[in-house]
Design goal:
The protein is an all-alpha fold. The chain has one domain (85-312): MetI-like fold. Helix content is 67%, strand content 1%. It has a two-stranded antiparallel ribbon. A hairpin with a 7-residue loop joins strand 1 and strand 2. Helix 1 (33-60) crosses helix 13 (282-312) and helix 3 runs antiparallel to helix 10.
Length: 313
């Protein structure tokens, strides 16, 4: 009886190929290349609408072009100007400051609220979670117009603060414009951080908290020893998403201050639009966009690597 047959004389499928040689490189069932056919539509969509425009943007960044006439090749001149131009460098500094509000403030408030909820365990948590997440579902343009009204000289915020002499030109003052928009960003991203942290909290065993309390751990020690290590993955995701949101913020700023007053709230994404459509400097706009893309990629990669290193430590 052949070694490739069972005791009842039936042949074992897939063990030997022609000539008695064992098959290699193909799994039983459907061929593996079928999986790539399912991925092909998404891959084509990515190539046509993401990768090719990115390559074209990099190519245009080496030109001096107004978007209408024939462009002229200038090599790295746009990037050299980008490094020495104070307005452009200042816009990147403004984005870094916004990260403090979009990521730092939002994450800190979300963690503090999660800590309180973990101790209190109130009723109606589903409704509360929905209300917290609500800003994520509202278009940023609508949020911007709402806060223009709130921050207006005769708006509700100044009406409350005026009796105490604390009323300000919130979006028109050099010292308050960027922080005011930063707190709007914190309000927007706080809901995302809270929901992700809350989902992570639900998979933390209660026994870890019970053991910490038996050892006499305070609420802050519980946060440091139990909560933060267990929420490492969620924290990495939140920091990545909120940092990217801060770096590429455009709609909030353009619909509130348009980069003013005096460029105090101008960020790279606003400069991209101004250079491309107002100043007729498409090449410079593309150069700023390329540098901003590289910074976003580097920051996201750094946060991911730090999160993975902490997980395997």
């Amino acid at each position: 009886m052949s070694s490739n047959a069972t005791s009842d004389g039936r042949r074992r499928p897939g063990l030997l190929a022609r000539g008695g040689r064992r098959r290699r490189g193909r799994a039983p069932g459907e061929p593996r290349y079928v999986a790539f056919l399912f991925l092909l539509p998404a891959l084509l969509f990515y190539l046509v609408f993401t990768f090719l425009p990115l390559v074209h943007t990099v190519w245009l960044s080496f030109y001096e072009w107004d978007g209408i006439t024939i462009g002229h090749w200038i090599g790295l001149a746009n990037y050299r100007e980008l490094l020495v131009d104070e307005e452009i460098r200042g816009s990147f500094v403004h984005s870094i400051k916004l990260i403090i509000y979009y990521s730092g403030v939002a994450v800190a408030i979300a963690l503090l609220l999660i800590l309180v909820l973990q101790r209190a365990k109130p009723r109606g948590l589903t409704v509360f979670r929905t209300l917290i997440f609500l800003p994520q579902t509202v278009a940023v343009v609508v949020v911007a117009q709402a806060f223009v009204w709130i921050y207006a000289p005769d708006g509700p915020l100044n009406q409350v603060l005026e009796p105490f002499g604390l009323d300000r030109q919130w979006l028109g003052d050099f010292g308050t414009a960027l922080p005011a928009l930063g707190f709007v960003g914190s309000w927007i991203t706080f809901g995302l951080a809270f929901v992700l942290f809350l989902a992570g909290m639900q998979r933390i065993p209660q026994s870890l908290y019970d053991a910490a309390r038996v050892d006499g751990a305070s609420i802050w020690q519980e946060m440091r020893v139990v909560t933060l290590p267990q929420l490492r993955n969620e924290l990495a995701v939140v920091l990545t998403l909120t940092t990217i949101t801060a770096l590429r913020s455009f709609d909030l700023i353009y619909n509130t201050t348009k980069g003013g007053p005096g460029g105090e709230t101008r960020v790279p994404s606003v400069l991209v639009v101004l250079n491309a459509f107002s100043y007729g400097r498409v090449g410079m706009a593309c150069a700023i966009a390329v540098v901003l893309t590289l910074i976003i990629f580097a920051v996201a990669l750094l946060i991911t690597r730090i999160g993975d290193r902490g997980e395997h430590a």
